[in-house]
Specification:
A hairpin with a 2-residue loop joins strand 3 and strand 4. The chain contains 26 helices and 10 strands. It has 3 domains: about 450 residues, Multidrug efflux transporter AcrB transmembrane fold, CATH 1.20.1640; about 140 residues, Multidrug efflux transporter AcrB pore domain like (Alpha-Beta Plaits, 2-Layer Sandwich), CATH 3.30.70.1320; about 130 residues. By secondary structure, it is α+β, with helices and mostly antiparallel strands. The C terminus is likely disordered. The strands form 3 sheets. The protein has a 4-stranded antiparallel β-sheet with strand order 2-5-1-6. Strands 8-9-7-10 form a 4-stranded antiparallel β-sheet, sandwiched between helices. The longest helix has about 35 residues. Helix 10 packs antiparallel against helix 24, helix 11 packs across helix 23 and helix 15 crosses helix 22.
């Protein structure tokens, strides 16, 4: 440690220089909002969806919704028509569908006609009513491009594979501005969600981290009340955060939705080690006068290097458990965070003492306040209360934990990006409108492979549609069979057996399509059947995209089509989301189990006792149980963000236990003292650093409440709850367990005899428990 002083200028210059060079990479960071890129592309649902897109093109669609009191008026329809014409000309748009590009299939005197759904704009009230009647009879339009209450209408744009979504929405917004109207316009569809998420992620990245740093400066000044107590831990935080985040573009990775957590997490965690260093400096500075800053800095480094290194190692172990997660960004986050923590350990144990040795020794903060600071007063009361009630604390903790953890039975899983936005956000409003009036914003797909003109296959499609429409969560099913039925309605009169029915022969179906192709547009049905009639596509829209509903509907579809030789695969983004949610749960429990196991092993090795590992994870297990219970009671869902919380909590929360056990064991080395005296001393000295540590984590994460995304806000709230739970576990439950039971790994032979002889007297014979400190 003396070498830190000897080479301090070299350490300072090299540390700042390397971090500064790496930070130049920050300008190359790119964001990726696509949830599909969070998971390996060999997932079953992604393979199935890719196979459907192979025949029917990119299934990503942009939906432009026009909403007004009555959409069937000349001005609104004229605007929709003009907007669609402009949208259709965009390079990235493959095709469009609206009231003006949808077909109306009808017959007169045995002749079939295929005309646009709207052939003329209505001028009078009578013409508007007539148009409504025509629309109501058109199953290719109603609830697909116009709502049944006629308060909104949609333009659906299918995109090409190489679409630049940022450019697309710049063009779309320009078109909407150039063609004004009284209608309120919303955008829907996955491309819009991705583009919006990209903007919101960038905004969070620019706002949250700077705010976290500002809050941290204020917190450090409030805690330490001197410049070095603010600047030195802050420098550790800044350098370690920059060092880690700069590696993202250097490794060729992108900034994902959950990557927003990385700088916040590093700011909160990296601050802890510097806080313990400055707290120890103030403790020594208040009690010893004959020591210069060089010697004091070396002494602090020697005193705290082991516990800080160990807490850093266990934090890394907890977070590194995310390397076992299925989510690619979670694994990347684990590695970047681990590197950031390693950097924070170096900057805290090496750089901070080097910088501290250059400072002038300040007036002792604790003496300056006559040790009557509020924190010490609270710690005195806490220590005395635990010593008095240590027998009932463990039992009370278990009862409370069991009651709260019972809420876990109500815990729900969610992977729907729509729920990443608040209720009043345009994304959410568009999704609500699509769910209520257009069959739903979520799709499932069935790919049929065989002869699409075979009546048997088409009749099975109709049968599947009838069964699916009985489900409350399905309002719309579209397939090639619906086109055939529309043609039959045009060719036959109501009451005829062939009206609204599938013909019995393949030849008749083929004739239907010949008639359609002579009058209609093949591009209008290219989402439902391929050119050679070898593949057919059934699109199922879901009005409630919760994981429970999607899983239920997938089970219904699989059971329904189990013995159908023509069903090639079941896919769609609804299935992808469902499997993503399942993977989130699996990743949650894998990473959680690994984190607990690794922490148990590390603590067992550190203290050379399996008992140490066991009692150390007790506060963590209680905190995790409470966390899941609160989520269940409050309706906070387990999603791609909140699923990361337990591993982060273990990595951070175990620090408090290590610092407490380490200091307590040091106190046990002193002869002639009782367990109660040593617990009292530990809580009123190291307890100060532990509380400051916990508060710094809370301050770091509380900025997430300003995030654009509710899941990140929930994460911030849950972190506060988790840290408080871990703090109570380490500062209340653990000391009570130590007092209640004899743990050999905390005892030293030189204390054994003294301890035995003084068990009856302990603290009760002391006039003032404060003397134990």
């Amino acid at each position: 440690m003396e070498k830190i002083i000897k080479y301090r200028w070299f350490i300072i210059i090299i540390s700042i220089l390397i971090t500064g060079v790496l930070a130049l990479n920050l300008q190359n960071i790119e964001t990726d909002p696509d949830l599909k890129n969070y998971f390996p592309d060999h997932m079953e649902s992604m393979i199935a969806t890719d196979s459907i897109e192979k025949y029917f093109g990119n299934q990503d669609m942009v939906i432009i919704l026009f909403k007004t009191n009555d959409i069937i008026n000349k001005e609104s329809l004229l605007r929709i028509r003009d907007v669609e014409r402009q949208v259709k000309r965009l390079r990235s748009v493959r095709s469009t569908n609206s009231l003006f590009s949808s077909s109306r299939i009808y017959g007169k005197q045995g002749v079939m006609y295929v005309d646009p759904a709207i052939t003329a704009l209505p001028e009078t009230i009578q013409e508007r009513d007539s148009l409504r009647n025509i629309i109501e009879e058109n199953d290719l339009v109603m609830n697909i491009v116009v709502a049944d209450d006629y308060r909104s209408s949609a333009i659906i744009a299918s995109l090409k594979d190489d679409t630049n979504e940022d450019t697309l929405f710049l063009d779309l917004n320009r078109i909407i501005e150039d063609i004004p109207g009284k209608e309120k316009v919303y955008f829907g569809g996955l491309p819009y969600i991705r583009t919006t998420m990209k903007k919101e992620i960038a905004k969070d990245g620019y706002i949250l981290a700077p705010f976290a740093l500002i809050f941290m400066i204020i917190f450090l000044f409030f805690v330490f009340r001197e410049k070095k107590g603010v600047l030195l831990p802050f420098l550790v935080v800044l350098l370690s955060s920059l060092f880690a985040i700069s590696l993202i573009p250097l490794l060729g990775w992108k900034f994902y939705f959950i990557t927003v957590l990385v700088p916040i997490m590093l700011i909160a965690i990296a601050n802890d080690y510097g806080i313990h260093m400055i707290a120890k400096y103030q403790e020594i500075n208040a009690s010893e006068d004959n020591i210069d800053m060089k010697a004091l800095s070396v002494r602090i480094a020697k005193k705290l290097r082991k516990p800080i290194f160990l807490t850093g190692a266990t934090t890394i172990a907890g977070i590194a458990a995310l390397l076992a997660h299925t989510m690619i960004p979670a694994r990347q986050m684990a590695l970047i965070s681990a590197i950031g923590i390693i950097a924070a350990l170096y900057f805290s144990i090496i750089l901070l003492p080097a910088l501290l040795s250059l400072q002038k020794r300040s007036a002792p903060v604790l003496k300056r306040k006559n040790e009557n600071v509020k924190t010490n007063s609270l710690l005195n009361k806490l220590a005395n209360s635990i010593i008095r009630h240590y027998k009932i604390i463990p039992v009370s903790a278990i009862v409370i934990a069991l009651i709260i953890s019972a809420g876990a039975v109500f815990l729900k899983v969610d992977s729907n990006e729509e729920n990443f936005f608040p209720k009043k956000h345009p994304v959410k409003q568009a999704a609500n409108l699509l769910n209520a009036k257009y069959g739903g914003s979520e799709n499932l797909s069935i790919l049929f492979e065989g002869d699409a003109l075979d009546p048997a296959m088409l009749k099975r499609m109709i049968d599947y549609e009838k069964k699916l429409l009985k489900e409350d969560e399905i309002d719309l099913v579209m397939s090639f069979a619906d086109i055939i039925k529309e043609i039959s309605k045009a060719l036959y009169d109501p009451g005829d057996p062939m009206y609204d029915a599938i013909p019995d022969s393949r030849f008749a179906v083929a004739q239907f399509m010949e008639l359609y192709n002579m009058n209609g547009s093949a591009s209008e049905i290219d989402q439902l059947v391929d050119f050679n009639y070898e593949h057919a596509h059934m699109i199922i829209r879901i009005n409630e995209a919760s994981n429970r509903v999607v899983n239920k509907l997938i089970d219904v579809i699989r059971e329904m089509t189990e013995n159908d030789p023509d069903v090639a695969t079941i896919g769609g983004y609804g299935l992808v989301r469902s499997q993503l949610a399942t993977e989130v749960v699996h990743g949650q429990f894998w990473s959680l189990g690994i984190a607990i196991a690794v922490v148990f092993l590390l603590l067992s090795i550190i203290f050379r006792s399996a008992t140490a590992g066991l009692i150390s994870i007790i506060p963590l297990v209680i905190s995790i149980s409470i966390l899941f219970g609160v989520m269940g009671y409050t309706g906070i869902r387990l999603d791609i963000v909140t699923a990361l919380l337990s591993s982060v909590m273990i990595g951070v929360g175990i620090d408090y236990t290590i610092h407490l056990l380490w200091r307590y064991r040091e106190e046990r080395k002193k002869p002639g003292r009782t367990k109660k005296e040593d617990i009292y001393t530990t809580l009123t000295t190291t307890g100060r650093g532990i509380i400051f540590n916990a508060l710094s984590v809370i301050i770091g994460f509380v900025v997430l409440l300003a995030s654009s995304f509710p899941p990140l806000r929930y994460f911030g709230v849950l972190v506060v709850l988790s840290i408080i739970s871990c703090l109570i576990g380490a500062m209340v439950i653990l000391p009570a367990l130590i007092l209640k039971f004899d743990f050999k790994f905390l005892e030293y032979s030189q204390n054994t005899e003294v301890e035995t002889g003084n068990k009856e007297t302990e603290l009760k014979n002391k006039p003032d428990a404060k003397k134990a400190g």
